[in-house]
Design a protein that fits this description.
Length: 377
Amino acid sequence: MKKVILLFGIFILEFVSAQDSEKIHFDEKYKKEYQGKTKIEIDETKELLHIMIAMTEVGLENDDMVEQKGKYYQDVLQHFKKFKDEKIIVKFDSIIKVNPTNYVFLTGNAISHEFKDDHLVPDKNFMFPMKEVSSHTKITVNPIVTYKKEIEDFAKKTNFRRFYKNQTPYYKTIIKEYNQQANLEQQWEWLEKAFNTKVNSYLIFCSPLINGLNYTSTYDNNYFKQIIMVLPPVSKEKNFSEKQNIVFNTRIMFTEIDHNYVSGPTKKYAKEIDNALKEREKWVNTKQEGTQYYPTPERVFDEYMTYGVFYLFCNDKFKDDQSIINYAYNDLNALMKDRGFPKMKEFNNALLTFRKKYPNKKIDDWYPEFIESCSQL
């Protein structure tokens, strides 16, 4: 079972979706609150669902789905593990084993409800925020509604709300570190200048229990477009310099964000990409696990472009420090090669050449010429 979840994690790491706008509603109050802003939250109901999943058999066995390092995880175990045999935990375990995408449907729809005393009440903006993981993986009923009573009972029985409140200082630390290390505002500003796509707001839902299963959703309602990302806390690698840590943490977020900017022109020029990347084995190491989730030239190009654009961002952000640009370049090339994308180095080189050739143009504008050049890489 662990192998199945790990492979699923490779897929989810790059998962981006546009959700059904009929199940969300951005009223004028919400738009005013979030317009032009970024926000990082550790949502109470969502954290409850992460804890419940962490107590399932599959969650306890899998450190890709659940972050199992650190004091917070030990605190969770100490407080909640004695409740791992509760019926709702066993139920969640069974439905995730049957279909791992239920991890996304459970955690992603948690923001549809909020606590009022011991009860969950519907959120007026997000009624059913996570309906699909892909075009062929959809649900029609919000699982938080289905299991509402059982979730409430579990929260009450375990004194979850007290646990959550007691962890507030730690949650605030996570949010502070995000603001210091991940440079979300800088990424957003750069992407808006580089592409034609415009976004009104970014919202990050974080949990100390998230590890490899990250995902992004686009919500567009009432002339308001918001990107929501589900990500782990930033990390500080002991062997990294301060700038290397910034590159590492920024990349995790950036390559979720820029899907939303890259995907538009990629879809627009899908036929040209089909022709340029028709030799699949040149672009993809088909023996590498995970590459099956990128079955078309369009998906392959989109993945290369997502990471390549991050390299362009690093060239601008660290323009006075060639050594850190080189670090980002080598790190990206090695990472993508390990994931089964062997042409990342050539792709990055070509991308930077085009960026220098057209410094004042939107990336969308030179997409066709760049795609054509890819056939020669």
